[in-house]
């Protein structure tokens, strides 16, 4: 099931089309609030994209996954549950991309200029009807038509996964360095804490040592007199 689909301009993150479904929940209010959280995350992802961003990417968020495709300066993003086949998801995004371009060509001719000069959000909201139709078409990944699409795209998705894994591994190296740095900082903090305790003990000793010495001397004198 495709819960939301956004089409946006990569250069500034402006939404051009948005289509959403209601999350299935016994509590409708909780469902709406949850969807609002993921809508906010989707907008943050879109805002962070640049022309040099990966053309295809999947981003996990709790039990859901954002998938996006970038083509000709336009981002096509959708949200599904983790179990939804990635092959089918990118097939969906590619078909949405083709349909969006064809629709703009029919209406505006030069579709790239139409996208670049769009001055307000949701400028092409009429395309939402196509998005809804495509979402229904791809809603059940287990039907025969969608299974056939998965089989056809199996080789292509392996290439996408490999590129994504490489990116994750690069981030993993940075994470390892961060872990090492954090461990080093913890060791330094422990040393500082132990040094601070020693310093405090030395200060106390210097402050009270004379009094202890005097007290000991008085006790010794008293004991000596009582003995004799």
Short description:
With 228 residues, this protein is α+β, with helices and mostly antiparallel strands.
Secondary-structure element order, as H and E? EEHEEEHHHHH
Strand content of the residues, in percent? 15-25%
How widely separated are the two ends?
101 Å
Mind telling me the C-alpha Rg? 32 Å
Largest sheet: 5 strands, antiparallel
Count of DSSP H/I helices: 6
Shape: rod-shaped
| Counted beta strands | 5
Mean pLDDT: 75
Low-confidence stretches: 24-30, 161-169, 171-176
Helix percent band: 55-70%
Spatial order of the strands forming the largest sheet? 2-1-5-4-3
Structural class: alpha+beta
Task: Describe the secondary structure blueprint for this structure.
Blueprint lengths: L1 E8 L5 E6 L7 H21 L7 E6 L2 E8 L2 E8 L4 H23 L2 H7 L10 H10 L6 H9 L1 H74 L1
Antiparallel strand pairs: 1-2, 1-5, 3-4, 4-5
